[in-house]
Structures are given as C-alpha cells and as structure tokens.
Amino acid sequence: MEFLNDFVNTINGFLWSYVLVVVLVGCGLWFTFSTRFVQLRMLPDMLRLLTEGVGEKKHGGAISSFQAFCVSTASRVGVGNIAGVAIAIVTGGPGSVFWMWVIAFIGCATGFVESTLAQIYKLPKGNGTFHGGPAYYIKNALHQPGVAKLFAFLISVTFGLIYVSVQANTIALSAKTAFGIAPIVTAIFLCVLTALVIFGGMSRIAKFTEFLVPIMAGLYILTAIIVILMNFEKIPAIFALIIHDAFSPSAAVGGGLGTAVLTGIKRGLFSNEAGEGSVPNAAATADVSHPVKQGLVQSFGVYVDTWLVCSATAFIVLLTGKYEVGGELTGIALAQASLASVFGSLAPSAIAIMILMFAFSSIVGNYYYGEINISIFSGNTKMYLTIFRALVVLMVLFGCVAEFSLVWNLADLFMAFLCLTNLYAISRLAKYAYRALADYTSKRKAGIADPSFAPSVLGTTDGIYAWKK
C-alpha cells in the first residue's frame, strides 16, 4: 500500500503542479472572459431560475430544472465539503480557503459552459425524459467515439469506484471517532446497504436520502452560523488570516505558496466538481425551454457548494482553533473535534450521522454517473452493469479499510485525468455555449420572460437531437 501511495503521489505532483492547474485555471479564465463574466452579470437570472422549477409538475417522467439541480447538489454536497476542507486547512494552511473561493468563482464559468453543452446535445429517452453529458457531446458533436468511451470509462471509475471509496472512508473514520465502531463493521453495513440500493433497486432508500440531504445540509449550515455568532468578534481576524496566508503561508506549510494554492484548487475542485464533467450528466436530464437556463442554474450550484457549504466548514475549523497546520488531526476527525469544543461530546455523533447521510447519498449519486455512462459502450451492457455494481460494492469495502491518504490521492489522480478529457471537449465546443448565451440574453432584453431555443442559432445542428422539431 505504501509503494502504491508513493507512486500515485508522484504522478499527482507532476499533473497538478505542471499540467492541470494551468489547464483548469486557463480554461476557467477563458470561459469567464468569453462569456463576459457570466457568473456575475447573470447572477440575478440564476437566482430567478433556481426558484422557477420549485414544485413544478412535469409531464410524464420529465425532470424540472430545479430537480436536476437537486440531483447534482446531492452528489456535490458530501465529504469534500467537510473532510476535504479540513484537509485543505491542515495541508495548505488557512490561505487554501481563499484559493478554494477563487477556483469556485472561475469554476462557475466552466460549470456554465459544460452544463449548457450537455443540454444542447442531450438525447431524448421518451416519456419526456433525457440523458446526456460529456460522453455524449464528445461522441455526437466532436464525432470522437474513442474519446467518448475514454471519458465514460474515466467517470465510471472516478465517481463509481474511487469517489465511492472516499465517501466510505470518511463514513468509517467518523463512525470510529464518534462511536468506536471498527471500520470492518462499518464496511459490512455499508456494503449491504449499497448492494440493496444498486442491485435491488430500492428506490425508497434513494428517495429518502435525496429528501434528507437538503435538510442535513441546512442543519449543518445552521450549526456553522451558530459557531460564527458565538465567535462573531473573531470574524475580521479570520478573514485577515485567510487573505494573509493565501499569499504568505506560515512556515508550517511545506512548499509554501505553491502548496496553499494547489491544495485549495484540488480540494475546491473535488467539492464543486466544475470542469470534471460530472454535473453535466445531471444537467442533461432537465426539461427546460432553453439550454442556457440549466447552464445558469448549475453554475450557481458551484457557489452553493463552495462559497456556502465549504465556507461553513472553514469557519468552524478556524474559529474553534483546533487545527494545526501540518498536524496529524485532519479530515473528518478535525471537523468533529472542532464542533465538540463548542457543543460538547454529542457533536462528533451528530456529525457522524450527517456524514452518513451526506456520503451515502453521494455514493448513490456517484453510482448513477457511472451507470448512465456505461450505456455508451456497445456489447452486453447488462453484463457490464452487473460487473460495475459488484465493483462499486467492493470499493465501498476497500474505502472503509484503506489508508486515509491513499484514498484521497487516488481521487486526485483520477480527477485530473477526468478533468483533462472533459476540458479538451468543452474547449472545442465552447463557442456553441456562447452562441446559446447570446441568444438567451438577447431574448431576455427583448422582454421575453421565458426564451425558447432553436438550434439554428448555433450555426449548425450537427449532433443535436432533442431540440429538433
């Protein structure tokens, strides 16, 4: 295990230091300027569109814009928002939080482009439903089936297997810290529960977690607000610490500024998923009148994930002062210790329960991203799906008993490969997202409250199937 961890860490060092950070930030800035700061100027529309689909009843099995947003948020909001932020602070110092905020702002433009493209190139499934995502716009718009299969393989492995192990690892650690439960016991429980959902199709459990996650997220943010109010006089100093350490990290941060920046970017990307190509799979399922509507809604999701939920963890950890840069206490254990210092011995147990709800919902959501991409492969997809489901259960077991650092390093490695593949595709197709945005904004300026979309405005209808009349 130690050899594998060192090997993975070496590859990560090269990819994140010399390749991905340049490509990720470069693309994000390119999309930001090309859309004329869509993440700022279209913010009022984002908020309006987010509430537009609440309680909306669609025909057949169609999914509203708000429902698609909830599906993606259920997958986004997980251990990255709690354990990932704590890891960032311990590894890169308080300044890493600032770089998480920066990558979220840039990532909003990336998220807009990829989700708008997913809507443009989505495929109808019948009964008012759709599916799509990067594998489909790579295949149908770029006409590169080999690259499409590569992406489908990568997202199935990254989300369905590697990220599942991260979620399971955090559940096991939190259960051990809070209740003294051995990881192997947690592993057995999670394996059975996961198998029941993905093999048996127990939709009630999936619907229960989908209902419960927003409540748990609300309770978690409320908890952070209480901690902030109890330490309100420290807020200016904490902001000053974050800004100062973003550019002048403490000596305890090995690698200095570079480590602070890279840690913030990695943990921010793991949490908000902008550019990875995961969220477009959910965005494509929405039944909307214009692709840009879902692009804007999913762009706002990056703000929700990083600026709201991740910031909640950051302030809990920093205000309570239980962290030590470069220290051994990190991840979910640090978050539990921080809350225990405010709310007493019951806090770790409460966090462990929240983590179970967050992470198990993410396990189900991550599995879905894998399943929807397996269908792009030709051959016996039913057999492929059965093998994939078995591997998901095995990765839950692996995640519970594996070394903490190996699980997160594997996540960083596959996240890098996934991002590079998706960013290549959306960079090639971004002009169509820009044209769709121009069409949407011009109609809004003309007084059209609910703009409709005709693919002819893109200059080509190649690879477009759902929007053709």
Question: How is this structure best described in words?
Answer:
The protein is an all-alpha fold and 469 residues long. It has 18 helices and two strands. Helix 7 packs antiparallel against helix 8 and helix 8 crosses helix 9. The radius of gyration is 21 Å and the shape is globular. The relative contact order is 0.20.
| Helical proportion, percent range | over 70%
Q: What would you call the structural class?
A: mainly alpha
Helix and strand pattern: HHHHHHEEHHHHHHHHHHHH
What percentage of the residues does DSSP assign to strands (E)? under 5%
Question: Would you identify the regions where 5 or more consecutive residues have pLDDT less than 50?
Answer: 202-206
Number of helices: 18
Distance from first to last alpha carbon: 55 Å
Structural Rg: 21 Å
Q: Biggest sheet, in brief?
A: 2 strands, antiparallel
Gross morphology is: globular
Strands, count: 2
Output mean pLDDT: 83
Strand order of the largest sheet: 1-2
Provide the fold topology.
Layout: H1 2-34, H2 38-41, H3 43-52, H4 65-76, H5 79-92, H6 95-120, E1 123-126, E2 129-131, H7 134-140, H8 145-179, H9 183-200, H10 203-230, H11 235-247, H12 257-272, H13 279-283, H14 291-320, H15 331-343, H16 347-374, H17 381-401, H18 404-445
Antiparallel strand pairs: 1-2
Summary of the model, kept short:
The protein is mainly alpha-helical. Helix content is 76%, strand content 1%.
